[in-house]
Design the sequence.
């Protein structure tokens, strides 16, 4: 069973000491790494400029060497050369996997590069990269399975989902994608995460009541889960601490 924690590297903001922000971020990872099995570092969530997951990943690998790390790679605004450099850095640092996704539009006005995630995975596999690091694609929590042939033909190691709403979504994904690893994403139902829940059309009150059972069932089906709590680190950390007991 693998419980992962999704970590968003700090934003790069004017009048904020970036090095101090990085240290606080790494300190949080040190705390939560004692309660989870792995972490997933995101890249420029919602298109905002953030510290590179490569940069913080290097520090985490040095300070917590046994902690498995996967990382998001947004291809929307990267050239083929930039993608290849990013992937090589991930391999040299020792990351265990890369989630290749389109990413949100850049908030800095950077133009789209035209890169398609499934095509990027296919290209990397042709170069033998998948023998050095696991490659993942993202998938809807309720996909039309007849319309995802390009994702399937790319033959990633597996898929990381959109935020799961119920156990039936997990079961359907697992049954239809049996040759792939499935990593469902669950949002921790904290009041501080209400904004995220609304964005995802989740009824936080009912989701909260069913969360522990949903987590248990998800792990029983896939053996792997990624927990996200973008606005409430402390509550998720406390939850994982209690779950260990």
Sequence:
């Amino acid at each position: 069973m693998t419980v992962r924690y999704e970590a968003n590297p700090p934003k790069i903001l004017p009048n904020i000491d970036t090095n101090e922000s990085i240290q606080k971020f790494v300190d949080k990872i040190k705390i939560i790494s004692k309660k989870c099995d792995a972490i997933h570092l995101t890249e420029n969530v919602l298109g905002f400029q953030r510290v590179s997951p490569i940069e913080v990943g290097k520090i985490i690998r040095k300070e917590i060497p046994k902690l498995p790390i996967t990382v998001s790679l947004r291809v929307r605004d990267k050239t083929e050369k930039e993608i290849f450099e990013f992937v090589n850095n991930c391999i040299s640092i020792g990351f265990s996997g890369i989630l290749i996704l389109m990413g949100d539009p850049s908030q800095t006005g950077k133009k789209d590069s035209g890169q398609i995630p499934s095509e990027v995975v296919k290209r990397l596999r042709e170069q033998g990269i998948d023998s050095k690091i696991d490659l993942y694609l993202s998938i809807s929590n309720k996909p039309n399975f007849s319309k995802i042939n390009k994702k399937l033909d790319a033959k990633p190691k597996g898929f990381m989902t959109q935020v799961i709403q119920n156990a039936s979504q997990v079961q359907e994904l697992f049954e239809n994608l049996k040759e792939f690893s499935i990593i469902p994403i669950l949002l921790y139902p904290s009041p501080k995460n209400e904004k995220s829940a609304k964005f995802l059309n989740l009824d936080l009150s009912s989701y909260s009541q069913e969360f522990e059972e949903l987590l248990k069932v998800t792990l029983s089906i896939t053996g792997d889960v990624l927990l996200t709590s973008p606005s409430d680190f402390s509550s998720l950390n406390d939850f994982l601490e209690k779950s260990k007991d």
